[in-house]
Design brief:
alpha/beta, Rossmann fold, Arc Repressor Mutant, subunit A, 3 domains, 10 strands, nucleus, ORC4_C, DNA replication, P-loop_NTPase, ORC4
């Protein structure tokens, strides 16, 4: 699959000829149960980077997984000799590279060219990187200035000139991996994103950009000029793991296999596990864990902590064991975020909770939330300030940035923001627990949250 076409080796040309933009969308904390299928699709897509075709395309691959999954796929790719010998990976993270200048410095560091002056590289290992990359006089000059002097515009100009001076016969392909891709969209003027995509589309140099983000509406964050450099081809691999399937997995993970040597203990243990999974306390614990994270690794940690309480004197797992294990391993970051929200944002969360109760978990939009909030204001106008609609919209968008709510559809370009469907990523217990700990929470707000349907 990865072999270079016949005759290509004789020209010693770079195998990566097709430039693809991937934006890998992954909700943080979600499971990776689709590794096999994702691996096959991702491998087949990334293999296009190793084709000799002169086409240039872009792709958005949407799936539920972790960055570790992408690393596993890249690790398999790099086991191929031709790929490992040619590809130069550059990893950037929106949480670390908070502006474009820092990102340029990180590119410099990862390409091992910090010690470049003029057209000389002082460390021999750096020379091996520079020879096969782009013309040394350009890349050396650009990365030196990026790291140490000059304005951002000058630094970026040098880097872009270096990339564009490369050609297919002598340049080494560069693979840019942008984790937290949506945060790069918040950089000033989106300069780095635009220029990376512009170079990739120009097909002047073998460059691939892989973006990872949990935002399904990430395209709405991009400026028009940046969107114009992306072909909008998307691949969605959305996990649909239900709670029943999640519960079945717990049962199968805890059950002993049929070939267990002690038949009596095998039957007693498996009967106990079946009874355990039907206990309402256990179901509540697992339901909360499922709502927080569908990742099987976190589930395995929960089960391991519960199993660690089993001993010769206590040869079975009790419901209280799972409850205690949940308290140990599950730090509810979302509930902690609620403590830092404004009163307006907290009221919007409560309005969404009531909509969840009324419509049994169905998606809703901002207009529905705003109407629910206005009903509360009409009853309790003396205790809560009457906010203008633009202010409420800003608060709603902030909740979306915090990932307390998520968009249900990525194709929202033609839908007004007020009517885009979203889903609340908190359950009832998380909201009520946060309200109890919220500093100086108005009594009317607490009573509204505890009322049946608002």
């Amino acid at each position: 699959m990865f072999q270079t076409p016949a005759g290509a080796a004789e020209e010693d040309s770079c195998p990566m000829e097709r430039v693809i933009l991937y934006s890998l969308l992954e909700p943080r904390g979600s499971g990776k149960t689709m590794y096999g299928m994702l691996q096959r699709i991702a491998l087949s897509q990334i293999c296009l980077l190793y084709s000799q075709l002169l086409l240039s395309s872009s792709c958005m691959l949407t799936f539920f997984c972790f960055l570790q999954l992408l690393n596993c796929i890249l690790r398999e790719l790099l086991e191929v000799k031709d790929i490992n010998k040619n590809v130069l990976p550059v990893h950037l993270n929106g949480l670390l590279q908070t502006d474009d200048r820092i990102a340029l410095k990180e590119i410099t560091r990862q390409l091992n060219l910090e010690n470049v002056v003029g057209d000389k590289v002082f460390v021999s290992v750096y020379r091996s990187y520079a020879v096969c990359f782009v013309p040394l006089q350009f890349i050396a000059c650009s990365l030196f200035y990026c790291s140490f002097q000059g304005s951002f515009a000058e630094n970026l100009a040098f880097l872009l000139e270096a990339l564009k001076k490369g050609d297919r016969s002598s340049s080494r392909p560069v693979l840019f991996i942008l984790d937290e891709f949506d945060l790069f969209a918040h950089h000033k003027n989106q300069t780095l994103l635009y220029n990376l995509l512009d170079v990739s589309q120009s097909a002047q140099a073998p460059i691939a950009v892989i973006g990872l983000t949990c935002r399904l509406d990430v395209l709405e964050l991009l400026e028009k000029r940046v969107k114009s450099r992306f072909s909008h081809r998307q691949i969605h691999l959305l996990s649909s793991l239900s709670f029943i399937q999640y519960l079945d997995n717990v049962r199968s993970q805890l059950s002993l296999p049929q070939d267990f040597p002690d038949t009596k203990f095998h039957d007693e243990w498996n009967d106990g596990i079946k009874t355990l999974c039907e206990d309402q306390l256990v179901v509540d614990v697992l339901q909360r864990h499922y709502s927080s994270s569908k990742d099987f690794r976190s589930l395995h940690l929960l089960l391991m902590l519960a199993l660690s309480r089993v001993s010769a004197s206590k040869p079975a797992i009790k419901p209280t064991d799972l409850l205690e294990a949940s308290r140990v391993c599950m730090v509810d970051s979302k509930a902690n975020i609620l403590h830092g929200l404004s009163i307006l944002e907290l009221c919007l969360i409560i309005a969404m909770k009531h909509l969840n109760d009324i419509y049994e978990g169905e998606p809703f939009n901002f207009q529905m939330v705003h109407n629910e909030f206005k009903k509360f204001l009409q009853r309790k106008s003396h205790s809560i300030h009457n906010f203008d609609k633009p202010v409420v919209i800003k608060a709603f968008e902030h909740l979306q940035q915090l990932e307390l709510i998520k968009s249900m559809d990525s194709s929202t370009a033609k839908i007004q923001k007020e009517y885009q469907l979203v889903k609340l990523m908190l359950d009832h217990s998380q909201i009520m627990e946060a309200l109890q700990k919220y500093p100086q929470c108005p009594t009317d707000v607490k009573q509204w949250a505890m009322s049946a349907f608002g």
